[in-house]
Write a structure and sequence with these properties.
With 424 residues, the chain is mainly alpha-helical. 79% of the residues lie in helices and 0% in strands. The protein has a single domain (16-190, 226-420), classed as Growth Hormone, Chain: A (Up-down Bundle), CATH 1.20.1250. It has helices spanning 6-36, 38-42, 50-77, 80-98, 104-132, 138-146, 148-167, 169-177, 180-187, 217-229, 232-261, 267-297, 303-324, 328-343, 346-355, 362-378, 380-391, 394-397, 400-420. It starts with 5 loop residues before the first helix and ends with a helix.
Length: 424
């Protein structure tokens, strides 16, 4: 059978990017809508402590983290559009069910179930995108896809906050979750190109002698994960991403509550204020980072990593100032700069992850990355900040965040040096 014309493939790739990026926006909206509802849930009939509220995000992320390796293996073996359709339907249904929770246990269970669908999506979608586009465009492509992190998260704050004020926190979950059924159907029309089609060397030529003898999927999966753990630049990239995720996840969950309690902002203003900062800085920072990373990659294979290390190094002191200053103007200026620098890493780091591994390992590499960055990152950070807040105050607890940002910068610099030495 003749292959489709190149123009037709480009058109389908662009459509695929548009669909997956749009769905990713709802992915993060569903994930962070709960952050806008923290104060309302705390003072509702559920009467939750800060530790319990923080554990809602941690419970979701534990399930998300544990499910990711399973979907990573499936994503390297099965139809990716069908798996993505399942993912979208699953997390959307669980989000809507959160609005029916009558106890902490029911709410915890519903939020945890969201993690199953989102684990499938975030491990498989980047793998599909890497086969839609060549290596030279992946920084920009991943920037567009991961632009959904700030925009979707901010919409979670804004939509959740506004619906909460006018209709209550339960209705906010319904509004966030119900559109998922239609979004799932969009996925079934996506192409699933051969793995490695966008790379100079076909995937079939990349087998090594150590691959021989693995005839069963289970054995091949074990071999793949072991090989990834021996890839030093990949491992360091993921560890830096874990520190970055610790900081970003803790900040994303607790900032609306921080602005209300510490800054004295009204509830609706707190969610919209931080949401607006995240949308603007996230949109600009993510796109600029993706384009700069691809431009620098023309001259250095480590450009994506060096850019991420430099951006987070700059972000660290501004994050500290934003969380500790008493000046509203200084807070606003520092938070904008900090968020802008933080989001510049989104496209380059995710491009680095898929570029450091073989085409036939990309879903597994994303899955192992998801497992590590959440297990070490935003699984513990919302809970830990809540725990410190219960013991001292939220103003003291959030000071953990800038130190995590600084750690991510140092580890990514180490990953760039390891990649330059060819330690794959």
């Amino acid at each position: 059978m003749a292959s489709p014309p190149r123009s037709a493939f480009i058109e389908s790739a662009s459509l695929g990017l548009a669909v997956l990026a749009f769905i990713n926006l709802f992915n993060y909206l569903d994930r962070y809508v709960v952050s806008a509802l923290v104060e309302s849930i705390k003072h509702s009939e559920l009467a939750l402590s800060d530790t319990q509220l923080g554990s809602l995000m941690s419970g979701f992320l534990i399930v998300f983290t544990m499910a990711a390796p399973v979907f990573g293996v499936l994503g390297d073996l099965r139809s990716r559009p069908r798996l993505i359709a399942f993912a979208v339907g699953c997390w959307s249904a669980a989000t809507a069910l959160s609005g029916l929770a009558g106890s902490f246990a029911a709410l915890f269970g519903a939020r945890a179930a969201v993690g199953i669908g989102e684990a499938a999506y975030v491990t498989i979608a980047p793998s599909l995108l890497s086969d839609y586009f060549p290596r030279s465009q992946r920084g920009r492509v991943m920037a567009i896809f991961f632009c959904a992190i700030p925009v979707g998260s901010a919409l979670g704050y804004v939509v959740g906050g506004l619906v909460d004020v006018h209709f209550g926190w339960r209705m906010a979950f319904f509004v966030a979750g119900i559109p998922g059924a239609a979004l799932a159907l969009l996925c079934l029309g996506l192409r699933d190109p051969p793995r490695g089609i966008g790379d100079a060397q076909p995937a079939a030529e990349e087998r090594s002698p150590s691959d021989e003898g693995f005839t069963h999927h289970e054995s091949a999966a074990v071999a793949t994960y072991r090989r990834l753990l021996r890839n030093r630049p990949y491992v360091l990239t993921i560890l830096g991403y874990a520190a970055y995720t610790f900081a970003l996840g803790g900040l994303a969950f607790w900032m609306p509550a921080f602005l209300e309690r510490v800054r004295g902002m009204p509830r609706s203003e707190a969610t919209v204020n931080f949401g607006a900062i995240v949308i603007v800085t996230g949109f600009v920072g993510t796109f600029v980072g993706g384009w700069l990373g691809d431009y620098g990659a023309r001259y250095s294979k480590q450009a994506h990593l060096w850019l991420s290390a430099a951006a987070t190094l700059i972000a660290a002191p501004f994050t500290w100032l934003a969380l500790t200053t008493a000046s509203t103007r200084l807070y606003l200026a520092c938070m904008i700069i900090a968020q802008l620098m933080m989001f510049m890493s989104a496209g380059p780091i995710n491009a680095t992850i898929v570029n450091l591994v073989r085409p036939t390992q990309r879903a597994s590499a994303n899955a192992l990355g998801v497992f590590a960055i959440h297990l070490l990152g935003d699984v513990p950070s919302p809970w830990l900040i809540g725990k410190v807040s219960d013991a001292f105050s939220l103003a003291q607890a959030v000071k953990i965040v800038p130190f995590a940002v600084l750690v991510s910068a140092g580890i990514w610099a180490g990953a760039a040096r390891a990649q330059s030495r060819g330690r794959l």
